[in-house]
């Protein structure tokens, strides 16, 4: 059972700071370390616990590589300035094509994932990916960038998605945070990608403000509360949650576009992670399957839901 909580009135200015930052770029090593720790804390022997443990191992490998690689080379300043001037994301995910550097990074990550415990099917998928031609990897990258992945190959795409996350998180970390601007509804100001979820933060300078988290580069961008994270409508916004749940995890539904995006309240639970808890709160997605709303966010590790 769920609770459906309607919202009335214009209360989009919720939060202790009226002008929170437009965006926050990620710290790669810290991001993947936090994500790995959260996946590990959420894992266990039952339900999706073993899967969360597997994802913790992937995040730990991402963290290790991010630490070893250090700071990436900054993007060409003129290109960044031009994109910002035209209201475009500096990291153009749609124009990204795997180059030698990305393929090398991917192979290092895939190699680090060989020894981790995984189901036979996941190991077979990893073996297949490591022997795939560059053109096949490029095709999979294009599918992931279009948020269009064949569910039957979810395991294969998950590995490529992990490599893309590592690459784009590192690239996003070099961007001029204070110069980033909103680029459109439901779009990351750094790479233009969709959100994985949103969080109500407990930061000292923005306590109570809501930020969307990019599914690809993990950049956070400010998005006022009681406003659809996908189409930005403030009409027909409601919240659904699992009955008798903690009250810190909800699905924000929008009557205008028919989408829902999860919202995590770090004021109530500071340990919540916008990516790890999106997977761990699969129960919300199963609940929403019985409604007319569709998932508006994207998570490569929740394909099919």
From TrEMBL:
InterPro entries named in the record: FdhE-like_sf, FdhE_C, FdhE_central, FdhE_N, Formate_DH_accessory
Main localisation: cytoplasm
FdhE central domain ranges (all copies): 188-225
Cellular compartment(s): Cytoplasm
Domain annotation FdhE C-terminal: ranges: 226-302
Domain FdhE N-terminal, residue spans: 20-184
One annotated GO biological process: protein maturation
Keywords: Cytoplasm
GO molecular function, one term: ferric iron binding
Cellular compartments per GO CC: cytosol
Family stated for the protein in its record: Belongs to the FdhE family.
Function: Necessary for formate dehydrogenase activity.
Protein name, entry field: Protein FdhE homolog
Species classification: Bacteria, Pseudomonadati, Pseudomonadota, Alphaproteobacteria, Hyphomicrobiales
């Amino acid at each position: 059972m769920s609770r459906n909580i309607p919202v009335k009135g214009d209360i989009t200015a919720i939060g202790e700071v009226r002008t929170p930052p437009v965006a926050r770029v990620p710290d790669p090593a810290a991001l993947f370390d936090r994500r790995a720790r959260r996946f590990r804390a959420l894992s266990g022997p039952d339900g999706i616990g073993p899967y969360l443990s597997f994802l913790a191992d992937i995040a730990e490998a991402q963290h290790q590589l991010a630490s070893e690689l250090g700071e990436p080379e900054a993007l060409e300043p003129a290109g960044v300035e031009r994109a910002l001037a035209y209201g475009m994301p500096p990291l153009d995910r749609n124009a990204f094509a795997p180059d030698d550097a990305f393929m090398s990074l991917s192979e290092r990550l895939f190699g680090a994932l060989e020894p981790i415990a995984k189901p036979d099917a996941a190991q077979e998928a990893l073996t297949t990916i490591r022997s795939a031609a560059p053109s096949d990897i490029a095709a999979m990258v294009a599918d992931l960038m279009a948020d269009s992945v064949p569910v039957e190959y979810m395991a294969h795409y998950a590995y490529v998605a992990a490599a893309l996350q590592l690459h784009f998180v590192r690239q996003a970390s070099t961007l001029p945070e204070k110069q980033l601007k909103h680029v459109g509804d439901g779009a990351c100001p750094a790479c233009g990608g969709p959100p994985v979820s949103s969080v109500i933060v407990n930061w000292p300078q923005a306590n109570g403000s809501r930020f969307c988290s990019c599914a690809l580069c993990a950049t956070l961008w400010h998005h006022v509360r009681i406003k659809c994270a996908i189409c930005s409508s403030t009409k027909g916004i409601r919240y659904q949650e699992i009955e008798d749940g903690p009250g810190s995890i909800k699905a924000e539904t929008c009557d205008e576009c028919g989408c829902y995006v999860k919202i995590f309240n770090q004021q109530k639970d500071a340990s919540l992670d916008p990516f790890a808890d999106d997977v761990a709160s699969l129960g919300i997605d199963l609940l929403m399957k019985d409604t007319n709303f569709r998932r508006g966010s994207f998570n490569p590790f929740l394909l099919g839901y």
